[in-house]
Amino acid sequence: MKTLQIRHVPDDVHRRLKARAAEEGMSLSELALAELRRSLDKPTRRELFERLERRKPVEVEGGLAAVVRAERLGR
User: Fold this and answer.
1) For the chain, which residues make up each domain, given as ranges?
2) What's the Cα-to-Cα distance from 43 to each of 33, 38, 40, 57, rounded to whole Å?
């Protein structure tokens, strides 16, 4: 395993991370690693746009205006 060091962490960020780690019953390192993993599980904006570009357009019977009209009438 590798070691990661983060420099120049503002005092308020460090304080909040340390408090959250204590609330979760984790060390600061465990919390930081969990947060890094969680952030990597989310797609980046670029990945989201690439996924959207690969999707096929959806054809709606009657067009988009019909969908909006039906939604408004349903309220």
Assistant:
1) 11-73
2) 18, 10, 7, 21
